[in-house]
Amino acid sequence: MSVLDSWDQWKNFLGDRLHNAQNEGMNNQVIGDLAYEIGEYLANEVDPKNEQERVLADLWSVASSEERHAIANMMVKLVSNNGTK
Asked: Is the N or C terminus of the chain more exposed, i.e. has fewer CB atoms within 10 Å?
């Protein structure tokens, strides 16, 4: 089962990656930029696996670049309290 199949698993996966990046000293601007790039990749290359991902994909598809950065930054905030560490 892929981490994309379950919304909670996806948030925990992202939370773990966020905490690893922060522990390595990555600043919030770089993390936000990476979140944007991940969002772009997912929007272009991955079919949503659950309802939450479908909503994000739909929002992403109509958002401007600035709005996409906002969505990416909100996802970072959303997962900041998730993860296994």
From this structure: N
